[in-house]
Amino acid sequence: MSFITAPLTIAGVAAVLAALIAVVDRIVNNYGECEIDINKGTKKLTVKGGEPLLGLLSAEGIFLPSACGGRGSCGACKCQVTTDVGPHLPTETPYLTDGEIADSIHLSCQVKVKTDLSINIPEELFNVKQFDAKVLSIRDLTYDIKEVVFDLGDEDITFKAGMYVQIVVPPYAKVKGTTQRAYSMSSRPLDNHKVEVLIRLVPGGIATTYVHEQLKEGDSMQLVGPFGDFRRSETNATMVCVAGGSGMAPFKSIIHEMIDNNITDRELWYFFGARSLRDMFYMEEMRALEKEHPWFHFVPALSEPQEEDNWTGDVGLITDVLDRYIKDKIGVDTDMEGYLCGSPGMINACNNVMTANSIPLEKIYYDKFA
Asked: Is 17's pLDDT higher than 60?
C-alpha cells in the first residue's frame, strides 16, 4: 500500500506547508498602510499593503479594465508604475510589448502593493463606475445569441458608442468566486439609464453559460464600466464597418449615436457576415434604418446559405463581399476608414482586404475578440 500512502503523505505535507507559508506571510510580511499616488497627485489613496494593486484600486472606486477579473489571463489591467517594484513577472511579460516593459507598464493584478507606489492611468478611468443593475429583458436573437438589457435605476452611464462594460458573474455550479467578462454595449448612448449587450454562447464559457442558462429577468447583477477606445472618429471619411455574430453590438450603438446626433454628411457601409439565415438577426431593423437614412448602407452576406433560407442577398465570405463592394460601389479612390469587430482571424483577413483597397492600416480601427 506504500505506493498509495506515499503520494497522499506528500500531498498532505505540501498542503500543511502551503498553509504555514500563508500564515507566516500574513504575520511576518505585515506591510502596514501604503500610499498610492495616482497621476502625480491627482488622487492619493491610503490602503492596507499586501494585496494586488488591481483589487486595492477597485476597493477605492477606481476600476481598471480586467476581462478576467484579476486572474492574469487577459492582459487588460495595464498601468504605468513609476515606483521601482522589481523586474516584470513571467505572468506579465506575455501581455506586454518591449516598449511597454521599457516604459514600466505592469499588469496591476500582478503587482502586490508592499510599499508606497506612484502610478499613472488614463484620465478617463476616473469616470468608470460600478453599477448595481437589474435585468430588464432577455431576448433570443438567434439560437446562440441573447440580447440582455440592464436597468441602472437612478444611476446613469456616460459613454461613447463602441465602448464596453464588464459583467460581474456571481459564483454558480462549480465556479468559485466572482468572474468578470467584457461585452461591447449595443445600446444608444442617449439612453443612459440602460445598458444593452449581445452575448453569444461559448461552449464551456463561464459568463456566457451563466447568462444563457442561469440569468433571468429581474435578477440583479453588477456592471463595471465604461471602458475601451473603439469608437467613431471625428472625420468625414466614409466608414467601412465589418462584423459577424455578437460583433453587431458596437455598430448598432454607433449607428444610433449618429442618428441621435443628426450626422447626415458621412457615409457608413455596414457589412455583416453569417453562415446561414439562422445566424442573422436585426435584419428588419437594419433594413428600416437603411431606408430612412440615405447615408447608411447595410450589406448582409451568407457564406453557406441553406436551400430553405431562400436567400437573395450577397453570398460568399464577408471578405470577398467587402472587396467587391469597395471596388464596384464605394470606390477605391474614396476617403475611407475601416472599423472591424470580430475574431483575430476575421480582423486580419479584413485588414488585408482594406489595405489592398487603399485604406491605410493606421485608419483601420478594431475591437478584437479574445
From this structure: no
